Amino acid sequence: MKFQLFILLSTLFIIASGIGSTQSSGAKGILKCDSKPDAKVVVKLYDDDRGIDTDDLMGTTKTDSDGHFEVSGHTSEISTIDPKLNIYTDCNDKATPCQRKITIKIPDSYVTKGKNPEKIYDAGVIQLAGKFPGEERDCLH
């Protein structure tokens, strides 16, 4: 009985994966550590999937020498995607193992049907020196 349930759920998951629509999102901004640009910071764009499904990586980039970043990407989902940015930084934290992971959720109004986002979320200038709600540590990103 357990095996049959496993096969049924696996089949439904495969079917559901194929009937989703392609959706995209993107974001841009400037990262600073204290008053200086935070260069070479990894920024990843994900579709935040809840439940047993893992988050879908949609795009990745690093900040330039001025702290600027822009990232976009797409994935297929049945319902509207929930885009988020993960920022991995060592701002004011160089001696501590792993990096600080800061997550910023992108509003649904910045989700576009298709592979190319029509609007890019402007996260503005983000000062990474402070602490953020829900901040975590990540060694494997």
> Whole-Å distance between the termini?
38 Å
* The level-1 CATH class: Mainly Beta
Average pLDDT, rounded to a whole number, is 90
CATH architecture: Sandwich
DSSP strand count = 10
- Provide the CATH topology: Immunoglobulin-like
The poorly predicted ranges are: none
Give the tally of structural domains. 1
The share of residues in helices is 10-25%
Description:
By secondary structure, this protein is mostly beta strands. The chain has one domain: Immunoglobulin-like (Sandwich). 12% of the residues lie in helices and 45% in strands. The protein has one helix spanning 2-18; strands at 21-33, 36-37, 42-47, 56-62, 68-77, 83-89, 99-105, 112-113, 121-127, 136-138. Strands 1, 2, 5, 8 and 9 form a five-stranded mixed beta sheet that branches. A hairpin with an 8-residue loop joins strand 3 (42-47) and strand 4. The model has no long low-confidence stretch (mean pLDDT 90).
